[in-house]
Amino acid sequence: MTDEHWRRAFAKYARSAHRPSFGRGGPLQLAEVVRGCAEKDPDRFCDLALTLDGDACAIYLDSIMTSVSAHITPDRWAALVTHADRVAGSHVAHTVCRVLQSMPSLFAPALERVLSRYVTAPDPQQDPTEPESGTSDDLLTAGMNSTRGQAALTLAALHPHAGHQDFLVEHTVRLAEDPLLAVRTCAAEAVSTLIGIAADTALNAADRLLDHPNTAIHNATTTQRLLTQALLQSPDRFAPHLKRALDAQGITAELAGQTWAVAHLNCWSLPDIPCTPHELSTSARRGAAAVLSQHPDRSVFLVDLFNDSDEETRTNASQALRYVFSLPTEQATDLIRAFMDSSAFSTNSEHLSFALHEHTGILPAVAIDVCERILRVGSNEIGDIRHRRAAEVHYLVSIVLRLYRQSPAPLRQRCLDLIDALSLSGAHGLLTALDAER
Question: Is the pLDDT score of 427 beyond 90?
Answer without folding.
Answer: no
